[in-house]
UniProtKB/TrEMBL annotation:
Residues 43-90 are annotated as: Disordered. This is TonB-dependent receptor. It is a multi-pass membrane protein. The lineage of its organism: Bacteria, Pseudomonadati, Pseudomonadota, Alphaproteobacteria, Hyphomicrobiales. PROSITE patterns: TONB_DEPENDENT_REC_3. Its main location: membrane. It is found in: Cell outer membrane. InterPro entries: Beta-barrel_TonB, Beta-barrel_TonB_sf, Plug_dom, Plug_dom_sf, TonB-dep_rcpt-like. It comes from the Bacteria. It holds the Pfam family TonB_dep_Rec_b-barrel. Belongs to the TonB-dependent receptor family. Residues 344-812 form the TonB-dependent receptor-like beta-barrel domain. Residues 1-28 form the signal peptide.
Amino acid sequence: MLPRHARCGVSVVAVQAALLASSSGVFAQGSPRELPAVTVDAPTTARSKLRKPAVQTNAVARRNSAKPERRASIAATSEQEAGGARASLDQPAAVSRYQLPQRSFSITAKEADETINLKDPEDAVKYMPSLFVRKRNDGDNQAVLATRSWGLNSSARTLIYYDDLLISALIGNNNSGASPKWNLISPEAIGRVDFLSGPFAAAYPGNSIGGVLLITSKMPDKPFAVAKETVSVMPWNQYGTKNTYVTSQTSAAAGNRDGRLSWLVTANHLDSYQQPLTYTTFGSVFGVGPANTTGAVGAWNRTGGVANVIGTGALAHSQQTSGNLRVAYDVSPLVQATYSLGIWNNHQTSDPQTYLRSTFNGQPTFGGQGAFASNKYIWDQTHLSNAIALKSDTKGVFDFDLSASSYNYLQDIQLNPFTVAPFSATQSGLGYSLNGKITRNDGTNWQNADAKGIWRPFGIDGPHEISFGVHGDRYRLENPVYLSSVWYATSSTGTGQLFTTGIGETRTGALWLQDAWKIVPELKLTLGGRLETWRSLDGFNINSNPTAISGIPAAPTPVFVPVAKNQPGLNSTNFSPKASLSYDPNKEWNITASFGESYRYPTVTELYQNITVAGVATFANPNLKPEQDFTGELNVERRWNDGRVRLTLFKERTNNAIISQTTNVTNSTGGQTPTTTIGNVDAIRMQGVELSADKDNVMVRGLQVFGSVTYVDSRILSDPTFVSTIGGTTATGKRVPNVPEWRSTVGVTYRPNENWAYTVAGRYVGKQFATLDNTDTFAHVYQAFDPFLVFDMKIHYKATQNFAFDFGIDNIFNAQYFLFHPFPGRTFVLAGKYTF
């Protein structure tokens, strides 16, 4: 199975490369004056700034006669940018290249390295306004990005790119298997991170409702190498679990530029012991566990019902290794080709801890609770990504940008026992059944391809800059679950009997056009539109029902009758208009008003994936409608050479919002199984205000102050299909799930000289609900979504030109809070880095 998928991934990229190669030839022949012929002369030294032609015809003549120059990467890094006193205040390369209408927030590698306990790439956005990453532990492979109006279960409502590779997993819209593939990126490879708010650019699909995060690698222009070792230590004491969890991480990067060729290779290895990610709950009587046991910890659930904690759920040890190669080649002084290859491997095991003891012999027991078996697993994953691109950077009448990427689950297999061992006066009930389940995702894959052009009919400084493009994507889900006779040592298909399966595919094609019109130098109107056609196909599910079995299925293999279902195909074609008006009364002030309509289509897992992961069961909905979103905002910004303050007013309405709900369902043994269902909500509305500020040299030279505050009034306008689980409740008029009213950041960094940086920063997120009727009002219990205030600190010391050391503490005051899962407590971080 593994070789077949490997060949599939390589062949897809090969086909895409051939298509791009042929396309590039057409472009080159069609505009020879803008794309000069390839020359074999050795490049000269790099120029710090790209040439800007004053007159087009003269510029072409100079390019054709001058000696070729070694160009900086089209995707500029922080070290290569020119601008003000702080590079993060400069306009992102993608924004300036395509005249994108969104306002941006940015951070450079240097700023992140000095001020953030940067253990994973997603840590870089920790203090950006309105952003929050659901990172439950170091190396978390389920870290979803939440934005100002969309919460922690909205992975498909934000686009995240690493250079030309889309690392958002639009295979789903959840905080588990569809989480962004951050693990492909080594923190040492990051050059700059930029966040663009809102769905206002026609160049991006409707998944940009929440925004677009652009991570740019730092491609070198001279030899370099860096190695970093990071260790984090977290003491933990919650319910009946008390331990200290340690993570070690080794990362390295190296690169060089030699003539036309530049390359960057990175590697990362992480060994992480994690605090409990879930807990196993039981019962309807407070403090009372399963029959003939003691040790249950009396607890409530988030809606006020009994949810006694009888042990941990997922208690994981993860070993992850990733590598990434990026190569750039200057086909000509004005055209660059790039290729990147990424591979990520994860071996993760989970060994639940029980709090129960048998009243028969006083020994630990699972008490017959099968939920412990769902959280006992061995999980092996190997994922492969490929991305290629060909871009011109003439700054002339025409430029182009061709890119394609592919992501493949080469191996993704999780092994679970089917249930726990029998429990009685003569049986301890501490072990697991010999039979089990094999959950597979290998074969799941997706591809994206884009062809973009920029037409400047009046030159680089002309009144019109027209960009346009075509997009295509394909997402394929393969998720069979097999039964096995020996759960921990079995073939990839076990007994060959299917327990469940989910198969399906979605495809999207799009055309888009945008005109950035400088009416006068101070006033720019950007108009755009995106035409998209989407369809789902090949949807197929199998669910199994036991026959002639009561209670817990027996070993070695229970008998099941599969129930097959061919799902209906869906399709939709939609047009999304965009408009933005930007006014610069002077160089310090900017006022921008923007509007965008967008469509977010159901993902293949929302349609077809029925699965249980870490004890949480999810049931898909094959009849979902696309989301239709209308977003508007008004930005007022004041800039200084070393700072900025921005006020944003925004309002958003979404029709047919696709929202998932998780509730506890009592099973046949008295335990509780978290169960997620997915459906359309007729209409929701979100409106609010965001204020952010960032300034260097405040009162004291070297003192930087930054902060933000965001308020969101979210409401469910209509949900006629809502069915109350407790009776007498309604969803209409309630707050939108997973969207807090308030969130804020505040921090200071003091740099007394070039060698030291001291940072203290705080993050606050207010109460958010997880249920449509807002009945989850109980706080500080497992599965609740608590408000929290967390402070972090970091000391960065550059000891020599080569050596740097960091000491930091995340969650200084050890705040304990739940966002469904228990989140990390006080964590000590020590890092050392050597740059060659």
